[in-house]
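Form 12-C: Joint structure prediction
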Amino acid sequence: MRETEDEWTGLMRLAMSGDGAAYHRLLKAVTPVLRAGARRGLVRAGQPADQSEDIVQDILLAVHLKRHTWDANAPFAPWLFAIARNKLIDALRRRGRRVFVNIDDFAETIPSESAAETAPASEIAAQLQSLPARQRDVLQSIAVDSASIKETAAKFAMTEGAVRVALHRGLASLTAKLREP
Amino acid sequence: METEQLIRTLAADNAHRARPVGLVLMLALLSAAPISLAMFFVILGMRPDVMTAMHNPFFDMKFVVTLALAISAIAVSLHLSRPEASLRGWGWLLLIPAGILALEIGGEMMMPQRLPMMTRLIGNNSRVCMTAIPLLSLPLLAAALVGLRRGAPTRPAVAGAIAGMLSAGLAATLYASHCTDDSPLFVATWYTIATALMATLGGLVGSRVLRF
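Section 2 - Result
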């Protein structure tokens, strides 16, 4: 467990210094752990555990947009779990549930066994439709068509800078829309 | 969208760097400061005997107290903008201005006084003080909340309340140069009430706008 945490902290340091591949690896590594925590929280609140994927995505978006609040000298896991708890509480509240988030829901770096019994997430896909066309196109190109920033720029006759701006704005407005009740 | 797809998209955005919360907070406060300053000079202005007043240590100490409040509240609010942070180990910073005031009150008690204690406490400006500090605070509170929105406070009401104290500390620094009541008893009473008012307002607004 200790080793996992140290590995995460190392990857996050690399990510913050501009290493996109390390960032990708980190997000992939934490996702099953976040999923396990979200499932525990849902079960505790008397909700079906297979609804965890929207919460996982919500947490990932928050991690991404708030990663500048992580102190590179501090371990990454406590920061991550604090964000995760906050998002789980939010999600349960929006479902109108009395909130019992046990601190332990997010405390261990143990991943969930399998994602097989998890229903697909739907909230981001739904909100994607309400974004400005340009942001939506760019997000879809990178997320769904797995195009790079360069390829996306060529496809829409945009500069790479404009693609980056649209990408970041799109992610920020998605997050803002998900927060609306 | 599949989580795998979302992760790829987030990784593609890794080059984007957000400005640190502290920098955004400072820029926001600096842009709101002229509004509070303008309000201060138009409505109140400095007291006419400010040059003589500066020789009175109790006048000067008012600024020490209000700046101590502002600075410690800035430090605590920046700390709370990190999600894993709590007040533990940091809350005591907010007691520094109270401690200075307590020492001052003790010092004043030991000196011979022309005016009785209650007269010094009630002063002549309590109503102006209670109106002016919150009024001058408002632009600064708004700015502080804008800055702190960049952070990720998991206790938004507490962070908002500290932002209220921060704005009150800065506003009180301006107001102190207008006010002719220099007794620490006056400061401990009326400045504190004004600060509590702003902390309450900040907490109420913060619990809404500082969620992330």
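Section 3 - Comments
The interface with chain A takes residues 1-21, 81-84, 150-152, 154, 211-212 of chain B (CB under 8 Å). Residues 184-209 of chain B form the longest helix (26 residues).
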